[in-house]
Fold this sequence. Notes:
Helix content is 47%, strand content 18%. It is α+β, with helices and mostly antiparallel strands and 154 residues long. The chain has a three-stranded mixed beta sheet. Strands 4-5 form a two-stranded antiparallel sheet. Helix 4 (88-98) packs across helix 5 (117-140). The longest helix has 24 residues, at 117-140.
Amino acid sequence: MKVSDILRVKGGTLYTVTPDQPLADAVRTMAERDIGSLVVMDHGDLVGILTFREVILAIVGNDGTVGDTRVRSVMDDAPLTCTPETEIDELRRLMLGRHARYTPVMSQRTLMGVISFYDVAKAVVDGQDFENRMLKAYIRDWPVGEEEAAQQQQ
């Protein structure tokens, strides 16, 4: 399974901010949309990602407020990215290795979406559930051999 498979199911809604936007506006957008991340774009280029992790660190570092902080000063300016062709197992390893909960999906310089660790986990569980159902159906329909047929008739 590839990242493009998840994006196809998930849909294409994207939320972005610019690096010079006030952090308060970004936090408001995250709260209103019930999302955990915003991709930071500047003149059409990916320049970072803002997640609830960076927001919490900024609030703690500013005595419990966001104040006049700008997104640029708290965003992760080197986020883990992937492509639509990235295999889910590879993305899972990368996300675990980097402790990344959100990963922008890029096709060359175009932002295609954001994959969360939840999306990856759900895809893995759904794949395993499907495989389990297929194996159970296969076992249930297992052809009976001649010896077993004779034993069942006795």
